[in-house]
Amino acid sequence: xxxxxxxxxxxxxxxxxxxxxxxxxxxxxxxxxxxxxxxxxxxxxxxxxxxxxxxxxxxxxxxxxxxxxxxxxxxxxxxxxxxxxxxxxxxxxxxxxxxxxxxxxxxxxxxxxxxxxxxxxxxxxxxxxxxxxxxxxxxxxxxxxxxxxxxxxxxxxxxxxxxxxxxxxxxxxxxxxxxxxxxxxxxxxxxxxxxxxxxxxxxxxxxxxxxxxxxxxxxxxxxxxxxxxxxxxxxxxxxxxxxxxxxxxxxxxxxxxxxxxxxxxxxxxxxxxxxxxxxxxxxxxxxxxxxxxxxxxxxxxxxxxxxxxxxxxxxxxxxxxxxxxxxxxxxxxxxxxxxxxxxxxxxxxxx
Length: 351
Ligand code: SF4
What we know:
Blueprint: E1 16-19, E2 21-22, E3 41-42, H1 45-58, E4 68-72, H2 81-94, E5 100-104, H3 107-112, H4 115-124, E6 126-134, H5 138-143, H6 150-162, E7 166-171, H7 177-195, E8 199-202, H8 213-218, H9 227-240, E9 247-249, E10 263-264, H10 265-280, H11 284-296, H12 309-322, H13 327-339
Parallel strand pairs: 1-4, 4-5, 5-6, 6-7, 7-8, 8-9
Antiparallel strand pairs: 2-3, 9-10
Helix pairs in contact: 1-2, 2-4, 7-9, 9-10, 11-12, 11-13
The structure holds iron/sulfur cluster.
């Protein structure tokens, strides 16, 4: 029976999923529900090769249309290079049309491999590494127990790129809360400008109801941000990013309020800033209406939707109802809607 993990990047929706390890070896990040309640283990090369063989038989009639594969779960680069090479070569042997093989990895594991290792992995078929930077600020990373430092991220990221492998960095606006917002934006931009990844993927922070960060909120140690405050944070981040040939993705994740802010920094930065400014210049009611629209029906809604008096006529009574308890009532409601899109932990006691 072929094993599969619980998540993969949205860009790997049509990829063959090959599980090489189970769950996350770190699993302590306070914002991440994905693997809570599970334990990490490595799978033997024999087990993985046997899964690949079984999938090749199951998908025999589709083998010519399967062109990409993704190595699960959270940190495949923890495996020795020689084992990964054997797995990559076997995928390409059994699925000859596979041209792209990608994986998730933690910065600490990325750093442990040399540029030579990455060249070897590239030759065997690895084409992209997806990694969670979340923030370039050490203060934010320590607060959420990321377990990696900006130095790990620079070393790991640059080695992956030197080996000729495409690099995709995930960042999380809102993760610093109100207190660390500016630091989070400025230091994340600085780190991204140093690493210059091929892809920057925006994953707006939403707090899972079971997350230990709830307690931090009660104790006043974390102050959640509203949608428009997070847009202002993203605006500062984009402003400080170099006009480099990195693709800034918001469209691939529906928790991003402005999914239309999406494009190459070297050609589309000005247009992205214009869209962010256009949102920030809306009235308070229009911003709330846009948040309610996007959080209720996640999609790329044009800002013009809330410039339409007829749409506002429909949404304003809803906002008034939600807002009975004041502005915080509205923001709390929006934050609650956002949690529906998060993965679920596999435990009732996330500590
Ligand atoms: S964010 Fe990544 S490293 Fe952190 S617990 Fe989740 S899967 Fe593990």
